[in-house]
Design goal:
Elements lengths: L5 E3 L2 E3 L4 H26 L6 H26 L1 H27 L4 H24 L11 H22 L10
Antiparallel strand pairs: 1-2
Helix pairs in contact: 1-2, 1-4, 2-3, 3-4, 4-5
Length: 174
């Protein structure tokens, strides 16, 4: 892609190519939709309505994030392969969580919580790893914090949900 960059909202994008920038724009919009719908799904009651509706939107937006991240990483593989790996892991975790719920696997609630929670944490890790150096406050941290802080916050929340959510303790609820 060369040394040409574009800066948008203080974030440097390593290209001025209109196709690349369009894919980045779609990627950002899908990522924002993931953050919002994922948070709504996590914080909603676990019954028909907000949780499943936002969970479905989250899953398909995450699929789009993974596809756009894959195409962006492919163009800049040596610089961005780790973002592809994070995207693949996030989407795989979401697929596990979704399939556990859809197919009612044994212990599906725990698998659903762990899979969807892990996908959200990995989404945030990828965001901060890619953009932390350009964000206020975050740019003051060393790079390893971009990897560890979202996990240090997210993993205990997932464990808490696995230990304390009432559905996680019922014998394979329907």
């Amino acid at each position: 892609m060369g040394d040409v960059t574009t800066t948008i909202a203080g974030i440097e994008i390593p290209s001025a190519n209109p196709v690349f920038l369009t894919v980045v724009a779609v990627h950002v919009l899908l990522g924002l939709a993931c953050v919002v719908t994922g948070a709504i799904a996590m914080l909603s009651g676990k019954h028909a309505g907000h949780h499943p509706r936002n969970g479905i939107i989250y899953f398909w937006c995450l699929a789009g994030v993974f596809l756009t991240a894959t195409s962006l990483a492919a163009v800049r593989w040596t610089h961005d392969y780790h973002l592809f790996v994070l995207g693949a892991l996030a989407f795989a975790a979401a697929c596990l969580g979704r399939q556990a719920r859809r197919n009612r696997w044994s212990h599906w609630v725990r698998l659903h919580i762990a899979g969807m929670g892990a996908s959200y944490v990995l989404l945030l890790i990828a965001f901060y790893v890619d953009n932390g150096k350009s964000l206020p406050l975050w740019k003051e941290f060393p790079a390893f914090v971009y990897w560890l802080l979202p996990a240090a916050i997210g993993i205990p929340l997932i464990v808490y949900a696995l230990l304390w959510h009432p559905l996680a303790h019922r014998p394979d609820p329907s």
